[in-house]
Design goal:
eight-stranded mixed sheet, 42% strand, 3 domains, 614 residues, alpha+beta, Immunoglobulin-like
Length: 614
């Protein structure tokens, strides 16, 4: 068991700029339908024409939707942020006698968007009649050009066509790239030049996003609009834009400086980075705030310090300001977490869903995530492993690839020393976890205390040891390592007949969590960590062993390595060992066959019996 696969991937708060998954800012949500079911709404075509005005005056979107409503009291919900967008000119038409006629008196109501905490988005619901073809149009005006950063190419509705048209004046330039285009049944991108503007058109048969799909696999286009003179320097432009918006909210006032000086004076350690880091991680409350540009720009650092609360933007900005005040070369970095739909390999706000603090040191770049309470300074941030971050700076920004912590640094060692008593095996166990393995225990210890931690230990140890009798649990944290000790009793796993002993192997700890050993893996799974898992189980008997019957197993199936042996280590003792290595943080589609085969081999081997001749 990679303890316990994604269940033990710690709770990492990642909120920077939430991409509204549907058609750009407009989120059309409906009840997801299974194959063969009648959908509530079918979209024949969704067209969004965007007119870019200027860097300072933003853009306007003109939206046209043709569709069919299949049931009465069906509602078409439209999500938008009124602090950033003005919604106007909404019209609704029904098709009658081959013509669309404008409808008046239709019912509408608005509601907060409860898909996140402290968001300023609202949902506008428009009631539709049943069995009717409809057409709706509306306009969205936004004055913040940076918010035009995506064209999403998937839908939760059955949708025939999505089309985007973008017009850009010649004094501006648009840089774009595509993500997951291989999932589209059809797509076409065209561009042409006008007299005083450039025009782009994107037409697709969209990807249907429903049950069993992961948002990170959905197709999308990322965009960035810059002045024409900045063409080829888009990363530098994004860096300047972000730092300009940070300038007014990242300066510590004298009251805050005094508070920071007082905090550091009470701590005699010379390690200022850990003091500041742990102060924010343990004394501040995480609150996800996405009001207007607060979804992108942190709140004022002095307010965050005073209220002792904020999200990743706020806490990272405050930490960065504290470290800069004390002379460190600290900067903020835009990042995309391992569960996000893209990497930050393209300079736009849509590439990020997280913000962290970085510090340059003689030993390299230090990553600090004040929302990850279990992170150890010097390690990669677990939620960013293998991803690229965009480090901002007063001179030049740069991209930094966050390393993946190797299996050799994520150890999960299980040691048991058991003695045979009649039909039972009794003895001691010791588990040592290091690296990211066991981070959930560290998180619980820091956040919830020892009583909750004991309950968690008892529950998870029963899963590791497959519901055997356990008592005398004790534990100790040391650095990034956790050691757990206790006593264990296995019942009815051994019996003797005519000087021959039969030791059943189905009680040994599994390599993955129990669910993985019972069901085939058919969808991608985020483990959150690599692992090097080792079992050493010594079993002592009362009589001398003259012969043992058991065959070893060795499997190397990328990304797995598994070695299983049983050896006689003394006259009356045997040692059951296995070593399991998994060198990726995610089980991907290309890994299914090898991982499932390895699990099948483990299950088969663990259901064999060791035959001992005394």
């Amino acid at each position: 068991m990679i303890i316990n696969v994604h269940k033990y991937f710690p709770i990492i708060q990642t909120r920077l700029y939430r991409i509204t998954f549907a058609w750009s800012i407009i989120m059309l949500t409906s009840q997801l339908v299974s194959a063969g079911e009648q959908p509530d709404i079918r979209i024949r075509s969704y067209t969004e024409k965007t007119i870019i005005h200027s860097i300072d005056s933003g853009f306007t979107r003109y939206v046209t939707i043709y569709g069919i409503s299949f049931r009465r009291n069906n509602y078409l919900p439209i999500s938008f942020d009124p602090t950033n967008y003005d919604l106007s000119d909404f019209t609704l038409y029904y098709k009658k006698n081959y013509k669309y006629k404008r409808i008046t008196g239709y019912k509408t109501f608005e509601s907060p968007d409860f898909s996140g905490f402290y968001r300023s988005n609202i949902l506008k619901f428009v009631q539709l009649d049943s069995s009717v073809s409809f057409l709706c149009t509306f306009k969205l005006r936004c004055r913040k050009i940076m918010l035009f950063n995506t064209c999403t190419l998937f839908s939760q509705y059955v949708t025939d066509t999505i089309k985007y048209q973008v017009s850009i004046p010649n004094d501006l330039s648009m840089k774009y790239d595509s993500v997951n285009f291989d999932s589209l049944p059809f797509h076409k991108i065209m561009s042409y030049a006008g007299t005083d503007s450039q025009h782009f058109e994107i037409r697709v048969s969209p990807f249907l996003y429903g049950p069993g799909h992961q948002a990170r696999n959905c197709p999308i286009i990322r965009l960035l609009i810059v002045p024409a003179k900045e063409t080829g320097h888009e990363a530098q432009y994004l860096n300047r834009w972000y730092l300009n918006h940070l300038e007014s909210v990242s300066t510590l006032d004298q009251f805050s400086k005094n508070a920071i000086d007082s905090l550091l004076a009470r701590n005699k350690s010379n390690s200022l980075i850990p003091i500041c880091y742990d102060y924010i991680r343990t004394r501040f409350k995480y609150i996800d705030v996405e009001m207007g540009m607060g979804a992108v720009i942190p709140h004022d650092v002095n307010t965050v310090l005073q209220k002792r609360q904020g999200d990743c933007k706020d806490l990272s900005s405050l930490l960065c300001a504290m470290l800069k005040y004390k002379g460190f070369d600290a900067n903020l970095a835009l990042a995309a977490t391992v569960d996000y739909f893209c990497d930050f390999d393209f300079p736009t706000l849509a590439s990020a869903n997280h913000l962290i603090c970085t510090v340059k040191s003689d030993s390299g770049l230090i990553l600090l995530d004040p929302t990850d309470i279990s992170h150890m300074i010097g390690q990669p941030v677990q939620s960013l492993q293998g991803k690229t971050i965009f480090v901002t700076g007063p001179t030049e920004p740069y991209y930094y690839r966050v390393p993946v912590l190797s299996p050799g640094e994520n150890n999960f060692n299980i040691n048991l020393n058991l003695t045979n008593h009649s039909n039972s095996l009794e003895g001691n166990f010791r588990i040592i976890m290091s690296g990211y393995i066991g981070n959930v225990f560290k998180w619980t210890a820091l956040r919830q205390g020892s009583s909750d931690l004991r309950i968690l230990f008892e529950k998870e140890l029963k899963e590791i040891f497959q519901n055997q009798s356990i008592d005398g649990i004790s534990w100790i944290f040391q650095g990034d390592s956790l050691e757990i000790r206790g006593r264990i009793k296995y019942s009815n796993r051994y019996y003797m007949a005519n000087n021959i002993g039969y030791l059943y192997m189905d009680f040994i700890p599994q390599i993955f969590s129990d669910n993985f050993h019972k069901h085939k893996i058919r969808e991608e799974i985020l483990l959150g960590t690599t692992v090097n898992k080792n079992l050493s189980m010594v079993v002592n008997f009362n009589d001398t062993i003259h012969k043992m019957e058991y065959n070893p197993l060795f499997e190397k199936r990328d990304p797995c390595l598994f070695d299983f042996t049983v050896d006689r280590i003394s006259g009356n003792s045997i040692c059951i060992r296995y070593s399991f290595e998994f060198n990726k943080i995610r089980i991907e589609a290309g890994d299914f066959e090898n991982v499932n085969t390895l699990i099948d081999e483990f299950n088969r081997k663990s259901h064999e019996t060791i035959v001992l001749h005394f």
